[in-house]
Amino acid sequence: MEGVTINRSDSYYDENLMVKNRNRRVGDVLTNYIHPLASLGAGCEIGFFSVVGKNVTIGSGVHIGNCVTIHPGSVIRENCVIGDNCVIGKQPHPGATSRRRNDDDLRPPVIGRGCVLGSGVVLYAGLTMDQEVMVGDLASVRERCAIRRRVIVGRGVALENDVVVGENAKIQTGAYLTAHTVVGAGAFIAPMVITTNDNRMGRDEDSSCRLSGPRIDKNARVGAGALLLPGVAIAPETFVAAGSLVTGDTRPGAVFMGRPARYVRPVPEVEKR
Ligand SMILES: CC(C)(COP(=O)(O)OP(=O)(O)OC[C@H]1O[C@@H](n2cnc3c(N)ncnc32)[C@H](O)[C@@H]1OP(=O)(O)O)[C@@H](O)C(=O)NCCC(=O)NCCS
To answer: Which residue in 11, 108, 197, 243 is a FRET match for 5, CA 20 to 30 A apart?
Structure first.
């Protein structure tokens, strides 16, 4: 407990917490639970009704909101802000008919320093998130994703399993990145973009072997509501116009537009990075 600020009164930190709690007087409430083997750095703040699991490591100056669950072993480096109702380190539980099998032992997530999570964000196990990433309210980041530094993941974005996002990329509100999508550094994914990875929609024996997420290269831009078919490659500095349906690979530095998307012109030099 040394150096930890549990600043909103009445938190309990005790090996026998549950026993103690059972023995509490009527009218007393358990306001949060911090496992005795969790380590919290100096100046951490934890709101009401949050749970910090076994062997969690939290760096100094981390602010954790109300009703947050941090699963065992998770690492949260210094100066992060974790909004209300976040869940960190969730293990996946595939359904009975899911084609994904349960992963045996996904390692706990590591959240880099200075990351900011909005309210209701769910981060699964196996995630690596580098420093200063911002994740908006209600976004979900599935198992084994890798998110590089200074990425913005917008409100309500869904990143399925094994997505990789390069540094400084921006993924805007409501975008859906299917499993195995790769987003290059500095890429821009506009609101409500949809990506796909399975041309047979699950109708074969082992589709997991041939799932193919789109690849969106460095500094490419994909306009609002565009739809990318499985395995397409969006070349560096491509501009996909809003609402386009991308059925094949694009050329570097070119505007593609329409359904299906076709080359229309080069991207102006002033817009390139
Ligand atoms: C590509 C874009 C910039 C428009 O390009 P433009 O060349 O300036 O388009 P114009 O308005 O001059 O229209 C040229 C023609 O293309 C058509 N057009 C324009 N945008 C189109 C699109 N996204 N899809 C299909 N056709 C489009 C126009 O109807 C027009 O057709 P016409 O010549 O038959 O009348 C715009 O469509 C776009 O995608 N903007 C990105 C918006 C976005 O997603 N932002 C994300 C952050 S909010």
So the answer is: 108
Question: Cβ(224) to ligand 1 under 6 A?
Answer: yes
In a domain, 185, yes or no: yes
CA–CA separation, 189 vs 176, rounded Å? 10
For ligand 1, whether the C-beta of 190 sits within 6 Å is yes
Backbone φ, ψ for residue 189 (5° rounding) = -115, 115
Give the domain CATH number at 249: 2.160.10.10
Tell me if 222 CB under 6 Å of ligand 1. no
Looking at the CA of residue 241, tell me the nearest atom of ligand 1.
39
**Residues 53, 261: Cα–Cα separation, whole Å:** 48
Note down the domain range covering 194.
Answer: 145-199+210-273
The Cα diameter of the chain in Å comes to 73
Closest CA to 65 of 141, 118, 137: 118
User: One digit per residue, pLDDT tens: the chain, 273 residues?
Assistant: 444 555 433 444 444 444 343 333 345 566 788 898 999 999 999 988 899 999 999 999 999 999 999 999 999 999 999 999 999 999 998 777 776 666 667 999 999 999 999 999 999 999 999 999 999 999 999 999 999 999 999 999 999 999 999 999 999 999 999 999 999 999 999 999 999 999 988 887 665 567 899 999 999 999 999 999 999 999 999 999 999 999 999 999 999 999 999 999 999 999 999
Is-above-0.85 flag for pTM?
yes
List the strands of the sheet with 182-183, edge to edge: 39-40, 57-58, 75-76, 110-111, 128-129, 146-147, 164-165, 182-183, 215-216, 233-234
Domain count, the chain: 1
Helix/strand/coil for 72: coil
Q: Kindly give the number of the ligand 1 atom that is closest to the alpha carbon of 255.
A: 1
